[in-house]
Structure formats: C-alpha cells, structure tokens
C-alpha cells in the first residue's frame, strides 16, 4: 500500500478512528490495533514476508532478553552475534546473495552451472534494509547497556512493525521509539493537525515534484544516447530533486502519520541542498541512516585510535562504501559510496598547514557558492545512483563531458514543474528552522487563509501530480 | 431510523476527537463534492474511448476485425473505410500487454470476430510494458468493460477523473468552456479523428526542407533484456490468437524519411528477425510491412515523423483492405 494511494486514504482514517476510539487509557488495545494495522499494511505487498518480520522481531526480542539475562561476557557476545548473524544473513540472502554469486562467477570466468551455488529467484522484501537495521541496533544497544530490553513482546513487535516507518524509515533507535509504545498517548488536536499538514507537504513533494521529475528522468535515462550534454545534466539534476522529493516526501508523510497516532519520529532530512560540504550534506540527507552508520560502523573503527588520520580515512571509506552498498547490490552503489567517501576525505585534507585553506572550507570567500557546488556534485554522483549499470553511467558521464549540443532541451522543460520546484525550495529555505514549511501555520495565519492555502495545495496535488511512481527507497 | 448517537456512544471519543471529526467534515466536504462534480463532468465528455466503447457495445454482433496497438495504429486505420466491420481499439502508448488483455476481454463479446490487426513497430519490442498502475486501465474498465489490471477491481478503479486529473481537466476545459477550440478533434462514429491534420508537419506547411531540420523524439537505446521478454510475450499472444482461430495481420506503420534514417539498425534487425520467425511459425499470420514505404506515403500523409494524418490513414486502410481481400 503506497502512502499516495486511494487505499491508504481509506486505511488511515479507519485505523485512526479505531485507534482513538478504544480510548487513550487502554494502551494495550491501541498497540494491538497498531500492530494489526501495520501487518495488514505490509501484508498487502506480500503477506509471506510477514513471517520474516515476525521472525526477525522474535529473534531480536529474545536475543536482547538473553543478553540481559546472561552474566558472563562471552555468553552475551554469543547472543549478540547470533542476532547480528541472523539479521545480516537475511539481508544477505534476499539482497546481496545473487550479486555476490554473479560477481564471483565473473571473477573466475565461470559459466552458470560450473559452480556449486546458483543464483536464487527471490523477491526483495519491501523495507527489509530498514527494519533489519532498526532491530539490529536494538540488540547492539542492549549489549552496550545503552538500552534496557523490553519484556513486553507486543510493544517490541509494534516497534519493529510500526507501519508509518516500516518500509522506508526513518530508521529509529530503540531508545527513541520503543518507550513511546508503553506511554499513554493522548489525542492532541494541535499535534494531529500538525501531522496532517506534514502529510500534505509530503504528498506535494512526492506527487508533484518527484513524480513529475521522474517522467523526464525516466525518459532521458531510458535512452541517454539520444540526448545532448545539457539535457543529460538537466536530467541528472532533476534526478537529485526527484529522489529528494520522493524520499523526504515519504519521510514527511511517515512522520506526519505517526503524529496522528501520538508518536514522534526522527527528522530524516534537513534542507540538504543548503549543505556547504559533503560531510554536512550527509548530516542533512537521510539523517537516520547516516546516524546509524556513524554510531555502529564509523565510531567503533576510530575509537581505538582517535588521532590516526589513516584510520579515520579508512573508516570514512568503509562507512561510505557500506552506505552505498546498503542502497543496492550493484557496483554503481558501491562506487557512489566510495566517491562520497573520497570527497569527504578530500575536504578534510588541508591544502597547506593552515587548516582553513582546505578546498571546501566554509570561511572561503566563495563559500556562498558551496551549496550550488554540492547540489552539482550530488547530481553528478546521482548518475551512478540512477544508471542501471556502470556502462550506462559511463555513457551518461562521457556525453555530459563531451559538450554535445542539446537541441531538444526545451521539450524536457515543464514550466509548472519549475514553478513548483522553486516553491518547494524557497519555502523550505525560508522556513529552514521549522520541521517543514507548513508547520505551526495557525500561529501566523488565521483559519480562512490557512484553509485557502490547504485547498491550493490539494488542488496542485490533484491537478499537477505526475504519474504514480513507486517510492524509490522501497527497493532498498 | 438508526440511532446514530447510540451507535457512536460505543466509541470512547473524547471531546477533542469529536471536535476534530467536525473539523474534518467541514474541511473535506467541499473537496469531495468538487471531486464528484468533476467526475460527473468527465464522464459526460465524448472522448475517443467513450465513442469506441459505445460502438463496441452497439455493434458487437457485427464486428469482424479488431485493430490494436499504439497511437500509430490509432492514426493509421480508419474503420469507416474498412471492407469488413471493424473497430479500432488502439490508443497512444498502448503496448502489447494492453493489446493482449483487451483482446482477451473482447473476444467473447464478438461472435463474428475473424481478424486482428496489430503492430510490431520499430521500438515495440524494446520498450518496457506499463505497470499495473497504468492510468488507462481505469479507462478500459469504464469504457470497454475490460479488466486490464490483472487483479480484482475495486471502486477506485472506476474513477475516471482520478486516473489522470490533468488529462481530464484539459478535456473538461475544452469540452465545456472552449466552444471555439481551434483544430479540435472530429470523431466519426468509430471514434476515429477525421480532423487530425494539425501536427508538426502541418505547422511547417509540409515543407520538406524544414521538416528535414526539425527535431523529433526517437529512441535508439537497445534493451536486449526487454527485447527477450517482449518477444516471448508476443509469441504467447500469437499462440492465443492461433488457438482462437483468428487471422492476424501484423503491420509496421509508415514512417517519415527523417525518422527512418535515425533508427538504430540493431533494433530494426532484431525486430525484423522476429517477424520472419513469426511468418515461419504461424500460418494464420500475414505481415503488412509498410514502415519504409516512402513511395506511397509522402510528407502530406503525415501528422509528424511517425504518425499518419487522415489522408495517410486512407491509404493505409486501403492497404489493409487489400490484405483482407487476399485472406478471404
């Protein structure tokens, strides 16, 4: 069930009514409704994968309890590793197995049938990378005494399966989300209105910005040989805005939906196109994923020797390479991650002994141009992200750098799309200290005008939405 | 009368929830009402699909030929000029998957059906099929009564305006508010637009020198994986037609010289090899290959580089008729 679908438009109010109808004092009943709704929401994609979610939840629930109950350090470790092996094993089997088998065969120049392992015909379960990381962080945190394991299985199942963030995040830490399932949730009308406004803003970004950008991007990337340099560059920049509108729009809808149920989810995007460095970009883009890899990969590597530059650089490359690989089982993603890692290392390296002489230092006179520069870098690296394989990506990069005339560029430009993108950018930049541009509107604008603004957005969404595209991050 | 107060009393709604529900009702009522109004307006417009659907319903016992395909067939075959009772169910961007599902949907409704005309054009085998969410699925369901969703249908699948608000808004605007719309379509009773002359070639007054330098969109990217999939599907489609004892005319539609020159030769070669394979394998299939016929089809027969205008359609339909005569 997609957030921008008719079915979700029916599912959400029904779930919401049932949820609040049982009364805020009956937490267990509310959690049961949430769990049933979440499994229904997920089961509509493929009910068979519900078993996988339940199995993952149970493994981590019991592993965490066993870690807590073990007195010896080695036993705790065994339970931790069991949980990690299970989670990474499932992820590997469904997401990476075929990729590694193919690469292995290619490496040794083997044909199908010549090696013992053959590729599997498996569908990647929606949201697998998201909920696996969430449950894995829970057991690691329990092991490190950062979180007390819960005894309440229902709450834990809800924590893993909570439908607003189940399939595409934000990836929540147990310390932030899990306690919310045991607290009383009261119906706060202001919070609910805020949630609805965030959903509206998310739908605008997804349906008007991302889906319209997708139309042009898909057309150009379907046949890059037919387009000139500027058209390809334009499509690549558009892809940056497509993926931003798509994923940040999804996150807004997820966070807004959670608010309707009295939950608070983490912010996942913070105006990333204002970043003045690649490091800052990743602190503003898919924040919860960057946080996850920083906490569970980067810090554990560097903490043994904080002063070693080599170790830090290796940690950056490894973290960014894994972030790339998290996005998909293809070399394009790995190279994308390593390229980001290279840029981060580059910007950390001073050109002279004066640290401020670093290539991308914020105090540089041209620092106001840095956001533009990083949007361009993000767009160019998104070529790797968008292309089907390395060969296709190379064709695009070659053609962009060959300055081939783009006679057809005007056919790719849609004036309404540009107006709405400008509306999104200016609104987000002007309200960058808020969670989203429509936030707390009632503090500044009276109801009649407020409603007119909502109706205008609904009109724009109806009238100018692109064709329905799946959320890009579902495939990860 | 049911006692709503009593029914609602089983829910434990607090005052703030009741206030919120009231707020929602006030806010969303105009939205829902506006939508219903637009839906009704959209349903009244005699768009091509509606005319074709009506024709299908009222002539189902007579129709002997069904034409399927993309806008190229839609613009090329005028059922009014056909020697046998025919219907043109082609529409823009309609791919083999939709063709097949439409055929399966109409086959039992048409007792006299003998012939199928469809296309295997230049890029047909290398372009991916539409997803299950393809907006025209709603159209096919509403106007033709055919389920192309490949799943059970629901209430939302019947909503026309929602399937493509931008398209229907423009149709509503043209139909209800723009009486003097220039160069508007004139559909005959078969749903064929007999006034479809006003394409890019008309704008250039059919001046071949200007047409030569004009930019147009053409795909040249090779997709071997999609080619394999689409070819397998095409054979499955032909097996079905053979099983139903239908005579099939596979056509390639005339293209203008500039388009022909820009085609990717590998794509053309692959497509042509499939066509020869079909000819060997299926006795019920005949090919009408007119893609490179630049003698009969000149600039004045074209709407643009890859679509015929009604004059070109007249010539093309005559060629189909000749084929039909040979099949009798």
UniProtKB/TrEMBL annotation, chain A:
Signal peptide: none annotated. GO terms for biological process: alginic acid biosynthetic process. The keyword Transcription does not apply. Keywords: Acyltransferase, Cell membrane, Membrane, Transferase, Transmembrane, Transmembrane helix. The chain crosses the membrane at residues 47-66, 78-95, 115-133, 153-171, 314-346, 366-385, 451-467. InterPro entries: Ac/AlaTfrase_AlgI/DltB (IPR024194), AlgI (IPR028362), MB_O-acyltransferase (IPR051085), MBOAT_fam (IPR004299). It is found in: Cell membrane. One of its GO terms (molecular function) is acyltransferase activity. It holds the Pfam family MBOAT. The keyword Glycoprotein does not apply. One of its GO terms (cellular component) is plasma membrane. It is a multi-pass membrane protein. Belongs to the membrane-bound acyltransferase family. This is MBOAT family protein. It comes from Aequorivita aquimaris.
Automatic annotation (TrEMBL), chain B:
The chain crosses the membrane at residues 20-43. Keywords: Membrane, Transmembrane, Transmembrane helix. It comes from the Bacteria. This is SGNH/GDSL hydrolase family protein.
